[in-house]
Amino acid sequence: MDNTDLLDAVITQYKRQLSDKAGDLILADLSDFCGAMQTNFKMTQGMIDPYQLARLEGRREVYLHIMARLNIDLSSIRQIIKENKERYARSNERITS
After folding, report:
1. Domain locations in the chain?
2. CA nearest 37: which of 93, 78, 92?
3. By the number of CB atoms within 10 A of the CB, which of 17, 59, 65, 97 ranks highest?
4. Helix and strand numbers, DSSP H then E, in the chain
5. 31 near 74, Cβ under 8 Å?
6. How far apart are CA 10 and CA 6, in angstroms?
7. Residue 48 — left, alpha, or beta (φ > 0 → left; ψ -120 to 50 → alpha)?
């Protein structure tokens, strides 16, 4: 299997695992956790913690990598999050209760 075939197989698996309603919930959860739709630049006591910034940007980079593999653009991500926000909140309530 060459690199192109391997990449095609990986992309196929991403789509197979994350292209349904359960996948939408997972993507919405990862979006929140990874800070996909926000900046990770934050000042604390007038300073930037470079380690915290690097950690948060690493999370965000992984999320954007997954979205690229799924061929989902940012406007689609926003729509997925909007559609699943209430459903995600309800499922979180059940998990923490």
Report:
1. 3-96
2. 78
3. 59
4. 4, 0
5. no
6. 6
7. beta
